[in-house]
Design a protein that fits this description.
Four copies of one chain form a homotetramer. Chain A has about 375 residues and is an alpha/beta fold. Chain A is built from 13 helices and 14 strands. Strand 13 of chain A pairs antiparallel with strand 13 of chain C.
Amino acid sequence: MSKIRLGILGGGADSLIGIVHRVASQMFDSFELVGGVFNPNFKASKKFAKKIDLPLNRIYKDVDELINKEDELPEDKRMQVVSVLTPNFLHFTMAKKLLENGYNVICEKPLTTTYQEAIQLGRLQKENKSVFAVAYTYTGYPMIRQMKQMIADNIIGKIQKVDLQYYQGWINPFIHDYDKRKKVWRLNPEKSGISCCIGDIGTHAFQMLEYVSGLKVNSLLSDLNYLYDENKMDVDGTILVRLNNGSKGVIRTSQIATGEENNLTVAIYGMQGSLKWEQENPNYLYHLNQDRPYQTLKKGNVYNSDIAEDSVKIPAGHPEGIFDAMGNIYKGVAKAINNENAFEGEYPEINDGIRGMLFIEKVINSHKQGNKWVKL
Amino acid sequence: MSKIRLGILGGGADSLIGIVHRVASQMFDSFELVGGVFNPNFKASKKFAKKIDLPLNRIYKDVDELINKEDELPEDKRMQVVSVLTPNFLHFTMAKKLLENGYNVICEKPLTTTYQEAIQLGRLQKENKSVFAVAYTYTGYPMIRQMKQMIADNIIGKIQKVDLQYYQGWINPFIHDYDKRKKVWRLNPEKSGISCCIGDIGTHAFQMLEYVSGLKVNSLLSDLNYLYDENKMDVDGTILVRLNNGSKGVIRTSQIATGEENNLTVAIYGMQGSLKWEQENPNYLYHLNQDRPYQTLKKGNVYNSDIAEDSVKIPAGHPEGIFDAMGNIYKGVAKAINNENAFEGEYPEINDGIRGMLFIEKVINSHKQGNKWVKL
Amino acid sequence: MSKIRLGILGGGADSLIGIVHRVASQMFDSFELVGGVFNPNFKASKKFAKKIDLPLNRIYKDVDELINKEDELPEDKRMQVVSVLTPNFLHFTMAKKLLENGYNVICEKPLTTTYQEAIQLGRLQKENKSVFAVAYTYTGYPMIRQMKQMIADNIIGKIQKVDLQYYQGWINPFIHDYDKRKKVWRLNPEKSGISCCIGDIGTHAFQMLEYVSGLKVNSLLSDLNYLYDENKMDVDGTILVRLNNGSKGVIRTSQIATGEENNLTVAIYGMQGSLKWEQENPNYLYHLNQDRPYQTLKKGNVYNSDIAEDSVKIPAGHPEGIFDAMGNIYKGVAKAINNENAFEGEYPEINDGIRGMLFIEKVINSHKQGNKWVKL
Amino acid sequence: MSKIRLGILGGGADSLIGIVHRVASQMFDSFELVGGVFNPNFKASKKFAKKIDLPLNRIYKDVDELINKEDELPEDKRMQVVSVLTPNFLHFTMAKKLLENGYNVICEKPLTTTYQEAIQLGRLQKENKSVFAVAYTYTGYPMIRQMKQMIADNIIGKIQKVDLQYYQGWINPFIHDYDKRKKVWRLNPEKSGISCCIGDIGTHAFQMLEYVSGLKVNSLLSDLNYLYDENKMDVDGTILVRLNNGSKGVIRTSQIATGEENNLTVAIYGMQGSLKWEQENPNYLYHLNQDRPYQTLKKGNVYNSDIAEDSVKIPAGHPEGIFDAMGNIYKGVAKAINNENAFEGEYPEINDGIRGMLFIEKVINSHKQGNKWVKL
């Protein structure tokens, strides 16, 4: 089977997200990286292409040149999908041009810098029916997919409470010192938009909640923490939520939880049982029961659902990690491009990205109003 | 050394809390149970005394008789402290009479059914200087005391975020069925006061927060969950808090977290490090650090503080549990009666009980107002 | 119900094991400590009795006086059971005299210092049918009893492999220094018998193996470690075993596993499933299955067997520890004295102690022969 | 930088190990798969090449053709390294031919089927100085490399005890049924050599022991388990070992530990501290100390050594797994081919494979002699 021709925008040099996408795209022998724009500086872009031993003929100056030149290629040579790994404020422009020219897109999150932009992209995608994935990587973990499936299969019954946590501590060494703080781009509204903590990690928790539960957040009340008056960007926040099935919950996020690394946890409590999962130990899923011992499901076992097992490359007892999760999202995109998708939720779609932007705006809004309920 | 003469009100028959107090009182050879009123039914009370092989001569009809008859005894025979283990709505009357007659008191929580009653008890205790402990058992765990000491010693620096959870699932099998629900006394406002979940377990989390951090909650905003309109008692709630050092936090409580048993967790995040603890694995304390491996402290080791080590009866590697925690509280009370207390916080004091009642009222208040901030 | 009259030999002053036995005896309101010999020094013994506020009239000079004087008391005042907590080398003499005079006995482990002595005690006990418990405390944990019951109920099928570990590190700071080493009584053959590590902790693992599995060790091959030529006592050892159902296994013990506290683990692998348990987290039992998620059983739940639930004092989610485990053994002894035992294995019997002594001798024997198989 | 030209022998169709090697080779943009022999059936081989979209011009009938045809290519087109993923009994022939023709080799383990063959390969490799890696994948985990480095840096002092476990349960459903058993190739001596359990997983534990400790096993005594007389292949075994620094230890392996998945654990106890690691949670390393809290090191942190950090692609808190471990081994091979290796132990070398074969023979030998000590 011909590999899907992949281009990449951004992700050059020492980009962490760059290596994740490149590795993920190779995992199932489904994609071939053919070119792109790794850096706004053309020279740096070519240097990087050399470093990864990619021919220079399809390394372009910018996205416009990419589109023009690829357009001249015969259809069976042209890039089929482009991954947008640029800084956040460029996502919109890049994705818009790609959509307008008929490309499939994999876009890093957050999708855009405003909800309005996100809606525009959504409209475009609806029109031309491109495959459009937003890189909410954690939904690629097999046991998250197992959780989603078990909830869909009603194994824990009606959901009556949800609790999601995303705690990190990385901003702590910078936030207390005015000079250090100024150097953190995520704390600079011009580069990072209206939110730091909610925009960066709160959206992950929000998307995860809607992804695994199949429910929607109807309204929320948030309390953010900026720590210092002259700091204009949230570094911590707690968000009360109400879901469309009438139940309540809480999303907790922090970048000042000193010593925490990337502690995303998901707990969904149903009338018949509950499911819990931790990102730092992603190969385990805990199924709590009323009056029965709790069960620990592990990836790679026959008792898991088809989508969970399809997301695993190697038998039980061999840990898979974040690269493998992203690999599963690329796999989902490949299936979609080849019209092969078999399961729901094989990759996070553009609507997840749009909802994420809405969430950010509403959270900031609720806080600024003095912690009032706002509708989504 | 003469044992302290202990009386007990309530706790007869199959009372779970009764056995905890009896065992705890024996743990350090410091107390002798001499009599009491185990049951409002005098016959049942005597039957229970026989069952535990206690002489019947100091088994009384009621608290009034107890006070009258004990008063006739010479001072060196008279009960020195009385544990109040009756249903909640009787705590106030019992404790009031005991205080008015000069007894030291160990009272189960919640201290009373209203904040006003609690204040009255506080005033009485202040006047006569009785030793008065409120049975917030979890503060008796060695590693909670270690946590308190490390925070007091500034090891994690200024606290910048707190997160406490108290999740149970026991009410789930009852709450969804009107008839079953009616039979649960905790869901009956006449027996249980204005709150179920917050009153029963929320107060534990609140007291724990103030105990370990040394801080006070200044204001709060709560969102409670009643699940059904005709149910008048909260079974779940999330409470945003602001502390007197300017930091923020959250207290999360639930009795509908299906499959959770008694999952109280405490996380205190400071500028220099963080401390985390779980009630179901109480012999471990997790110390997170910026840029250093996280440490796991275990009870019974030389690196622990004096109060933590004084709360341990046997060397490292031998688990101690909830009975041992209560034993440490009784030990603290014995020391206080014998004027021997060496450490701060060796038993939870009446003020903890008063604050607890205030907390319950304010949480209900905030929720009823439509999730508004209220001051404590 | 009248409490059982308990005497204690040893366990005075700061004895750790003393406090364990005293607390354990109180846990179910079943025993009353009436006297004993807490110390070979009569003055120290009386001083200790005063400290724990015990009347001095039944504090005796030595075991002989105890037996003589108690004998003069009417039967309904006389001690019914005596706990022997003296140094190991005195167990035999004490227990022998007690048995010869008709007392029930609770004896610390190891039962004696030689197998021959143990056999003598066994013969005496058989003749006079005294209740005789050996304090293998860990068998008092509810989840160990659950494990035993599940194996007896054939839930994991035929046992095909066993693996027990008992790792400590406490001897590490002493063993490498000749002078420090000389001061450790466990490393002194005159005080400690023929073995240090195997005698002290290896026997626990061995007894646990036979207790939970219901099987017997038929033969063994051991490899011990003395670290230094001039050190005559083992501080570490691995023992291959063959069981009477034809299966094989291993017992691993160490006192030089630096940093380990009291890490006793039990793993029993059957044809239909497996069970694992760790002493430092005693309230959990792990049930592994072929092709099903593994289950975690926790104490205090309805799914546990009757004996496990009878060994629990308080509901699920409230940890119980080593004192509670010993309390369960005392409860078993009380039931036996009152002819009430309902379950198998409610306390470790004299035969467990005898087998333990045999085990020690055979392990040393196998090692001394150059790691040869020896029969038990 | 030009990618290294990689060929693969075996690993076609649904081969699990095939996908691991392909993904691993892509992880650092260092290798390009150019051809190979994926299957002894030429048609199947080509079919697989098509499936992964590899040009057919360098898909060969067999290793001989591969060598002949590649030889005709100019040096800068020729394969530089060939991964041997065929069934075990073919490793020797394949690797021998490759070495004789000057290729670098990555060979799956076990290296060969006999020690004699392994020695021959070793001699060849020594002569022509090819880079030769044996795929002991677990040595690619960052925290294993951290462990190795800490031991080399003497952080835990002289090693005084080692304990390694490799427990699986996968053979349990087959071993008890004669017909099912016959169908398992690992239980067929003609396909699998002289050992099943020791050959397949025991060697991993043995290699890991020597890798992390820097010590050598001098002698061993083994006890194997075949379960049934007519079964000629071991499915479980315990091996006592003595190391070249005078210390002792144990290696435990099983394929009948029902319910265990891939439970490889490593515990190294030193005079100054200890290190423990578990393959199923590979991103954590436990550092036990005398009289200090134990520390948990996690991958991706500044406190780790250079080799550990060089083995990580993404910051702390993002789990990496078995594919990433293999990726690190390929990275090590790439560095070696490019003469860039900076650390010791960046890939397992041929000597590890030779030692592994020696280990298997000695273990079988010791058991067959009646559990006698044998020298390595």
